[in-house]
Amino acid sequence: MSAPTASSALLACASFLVRERDLARADAPFTHVKLGILLYYAQSWHLAIHAAKLFQDRFRAYWAGPILPSLLESAGAMSEGAEWSPVRRDSFGGDDAIDEASRSTLWQILNSYGELGSGRLCDLARREAPWREARNGLPPCTPLGGQISEASMATAIEIWKNDDGELSLVERMERHARTAFVAKESKR
Q1: Are 124 and 116 in contact (CB under 8 A)?
Q2: Residue 120: domain span
Q3: Helices 8-24 and 32-50: angle between axes, nearest 10 degrees
Q4: What does 73-106 look like in DSSP terms, one character per residue?
């Protein structure tokens, strides 16, 4: 079974994140899994804030976290283990077609979540209801679960969006991203 073709909007969003992240020269490897989870949070926040999608492609509940099979297929990263390989800067084309609201969401995601490594992003996404619901009790060794509900994605973010009227949107995103550190530290 082959993955659906990635939409041009998805490829533009991926290209933007890869290009801007490369310009910032972050230290952690930028894997396909990390890119997928950043796109997952971008879509989630955009749905919660604007009640609109960044792209039409659907996420699936992969054992490591949310993935976009169409994006992995486009990047040639569908073979076993390739999802953990670094993303090449030229994998997705240009990002000229992104509107201002989408560009703003992507910037905020990169600034709030971009410094987290792939493992921490996976931990954060796997703790949340949308991924758990789509996995529906599958054993950890089962690679791919069901589609992740966009309504569930938006609802999970609503908690953070409305968390504290005193905080800016970026501060709320950063607070959400920091929960990955808190959870990791509390397990020790």
Answers
A1: yes
A2: 8-186
A3: 110
A4: HHTT--STTGGGSBPPTTSS---TT--HHHHHHH
Residue 186 Cα distances to 38, 62, 115, 132, 181, angstroms = 23, 25, 20, 20, 9
In a domain, 13, yes or no: yes
User: Is the residue at 44 inside a domain?
Assistant: yes
Q: For the segment 121-156, what is each residue's pLDDT rounded down to a tens digit?
A: 999 999 999 999 999 989 888 888 899 999 999 888
The Cα 48–Cα 158 span in angstroms is 6
Query: Which residue, chain included where needed, has tokens 């796109």?
Result: 39
**The one-letter amino acid at 186:** S
Q: Which of 94, 123, 117 is nearest to 18 (CA)?
A: 94
1 lies in a domain?
Answer: no
Residue 166 located in a structural domain: yes
User: Residues 40-94: pLDDT tens digits?
Assistant: 999 999 998 889 999 999 999 998 899 988 887 876 655 566 666 677 666 677 7
Report how many domains make up the chain.
1
Q: Quickly tell me which residue has 């808190």 as its tokens.
A: 182
